[in-house]
Amino acid sequence: MNPAYPNLLSPVKIGKVELRNKVIMAAMGMSQSDNGFVNKAVINHYAERAKGGVGAVIIEVTCVDSPLGLNTNGMLVIDDDKYIPGMSDLAKAIHDGGAKAFLQISHTGRGARRKIIGDQPVGPSAVAMPYSFMMGLANETPRELTIDEIKAIEEKYAQAALRAKKAGFDGVEIHSVGYYLGQQFLSKTANIRKDEYGGSRENRVRFHLNIVRRIRELCGEDFAIIVKLSTVEQGKDGGISIADGIYYCKRFQDVGVDAIEVLAGKWSEEAGKRENPESAYPDLMAVPLCQVMSAGIALMTGKKKKIHLIGGGRAQNPKLAEKALAKGKCDSIFVGHALLAQPDMVNLIDEGREDEIRPCIGCGHCIDHQLQHGSRAVCSGNAVLARGDNDYTITPAEVKKHVVVVGAGVAGVEAARIAAMRGHTVDIYDKATEVGGQINLAGLPPYKQHLSLMKPYLETQLKVHNVNTHLGTEVTKEDILKMNADAVVIATGVNPVMPPIEGSERAINANDVLKGKETGKNVVIVGGGSIGCETAEFLAAKGRKVTVIEKLDTLANGTGKTAQTILMGHLKGAGVKLLTECSVEKITAADVIYKDKSGKENTAKADSVVFAIGGRPNNALYESLKDEIKEIYNIGDSNGGGIIPTATYEGYTVGNKI
């Protein structure tokens, strides 16, 4: 065990279940089941994290009442015995990896969408789910559940837990966070019932207490029960106060719940004006809530709390996690997105290789792809995540080659990393004096600081895998031909687009603005994609009066929905003028002339004009070489690019192909 982390890496018990360390993989929806059934992709995904060293794995949100309780079409299901064999294989794979296995059981309630469940959603009351900046929508008004239906759902939770036990799981987690039914019963804004399930805190918690008692009756004392709980629900539609959260924790302790995963919930159509995107979340952001719950229980009972409190929230800094545990701020640490990015994170910590951990940059694409697009989750750093069967095997190359990579951005470094891991000799070149490419620019706007974590990771990977790195070196076609490489990978990125608009000679590029180039007081940004909108926020924070002009009817396309919604809230809150379906006609010495969608000509005052129209693939080098080199690849932005996950995936794929 790494002596730097005596608390983090030491065993702990949740109920009567002993974990090898205090790192718990939080449940995160991947949406990769086959009609609710466990498949190879699901097993490989969780087995890899178990082998990666975590103390316990909590399986993603699993439906106890299909189809009414479904969240996505790819959601796991446990409402029938036919799912037990697959679940048994899953539990065994986790145990074989040395971790304990917990199944998160859930019902989506009013958060379900008609297009998924084929019917009107249900809830404690006929109160529509408010606008959720994570889901990007407000849901239809649900049908209020009857008493008999509630009792039937309680039994479905308990039977789901029994199936989990039969499948070999060590316990279950009752999902009571976000837009799911558990939280809906606890919230006084979602639950406005006047009967035994609504009104007072005692009545609102009845749903959970009945479920817990029944699970104990069916599964016994050795089977662990965790509740994933929003201990506070914020915003104008929020219905759980801190006092409510403390009360619920105390009642769960009384009824025999073994642990609470402590979180907060947020609802507000205006949340984007106050909320920060995940790319700016503070480390261990939910740990202080554990302290509040612990103190609250002590005040209520006059005794130190007994229930195990699991804290976390952007928990990928092991030093901070160790300190929190050492000071007794929480009892164990839940880790989410960091384990999607780096499955063997705990092993790397244990081996003293913390600098090799691939960071979660908080881009939100994992959530966006699953909840917005109805597909599997993806990751900007981990090319394997939810792709195919989640096979992390890197096969040594049969023929060792000399590989030349041009471009040390995300795509190029990933290709070089994988090729080197497979035994090839790799040289990577970049005319810039630092690695990272576009990721270095992406971390410059406000609230994007976590993106900058990718650069040191890329640098470390090149060193660890002995890639010969040549920075500040621009190579030509002739240079590459002289190298006699067996394979060449071109990852040369993009060139900024400067459109042929009259007066464009006085415009500057958004990249230069982010790097520090000064502007005047009144700034017009031409282009409202992610770069344009983030540049607008950057300039608004410096006191500029900003107008964004975009041809399309939407802004910040390509940004994850959660981050996009928050960014739009920030821009509106900062007074940025957002003009969509408008085209720039002319730039004068003092103004930008543009037409709106009706064809009417308008004027926007502009001391400075900034172009943020994106980039054109810089593929000239590839085009000059493609007919002269037998094995050559073009990846990343120079191949059309798009979002960071695409660049990583292309680099990974090519690295494995060579």
Can I get a quick summary?
With 658 residues, the chain is α/β, with parallel strands linked by helices. Strand 24 and strand 25 (601-605) form a beta hairpin.
Descriptive report:
With 658 residues, this protein is α/β, with parallel strands linked by helices. 33% of the residues lie in helices and 19% in strands. The strands form seven sheets. It has an eight-stranded parallel β-barrel with strand order 3-4-6-9-10-11-12-13, surrounded by six helices. Helix 8 (242-255) packs across helix 10 (287-301).
List the keywords.
658 residues; alpha/beta; eight-stranded parallel β-barrel; five-stranded parallel β-sheet; 23 helices; globular
The chain-level structural class is alpha/beta
Mean pLDDT: 94
**Percent in strands:** 15-25%
- Give the strand order, joined by hyphens, for the main sheet: 3-4-6-9-10-11-12-13
**How would you sum up the global shape?**
globular
Residue ranges: pLDDT <50 for 5 or more in a row? none
State the major sheet.
8 strands, parallel, barrel
Terminal CA distance: 37 Å
| Helix content percent band | 25-40%
Rg from alpha-carbon coordinates: 26 Å
Tell me the layout of helices and strands:
Layout: E1 12-14, E2 17-19, E3 23-25, H1 40-51, E4 56-63, E5 76-77, H2 84-96, E6 100-106, H3 114-117, E7 122-123, E8 143-144, H4 147-166, E9 171-176, H5 181-186, H6 201-204, H7 206-219, E10 224-234, H8 242-255, E11 259-266, H9 271-274, H10 287-301, E12 308-312, H11 318-326, E13 332-335, H12 337-341, H13 345-350, H14 365-372, E14 402-406, H15 410-421, E15 425-430, H16 438-442, H17 454-464, E16 468-471, H18 477-483, E17 487-490, E18 494-496, E19 507-509, H19 510-514, E20 522-526, H20 530-540, E21 545-549, H21 561-573, E22 577-579, E23 583-587, E24 591-595, E25 601-605, E26 608-611, E27 615-617, H22 620-625, E28 632-634, H23 644-657
Parallel strand pairs: 3-4, 3-13, 4-5, 4-6, 6-9, 7-8, 9-10, 10-11, 11-12, 12-13, 14-15, 14-17, 15-16, 17-28, 19-26, 20-21, 20-26, 21-22
Antiparallel strand pairs: 1-2, 18-27, 23-24, 24-25
Helix pairs in contact: 1-2, 4-7, 8-10, 15-23, 20-21
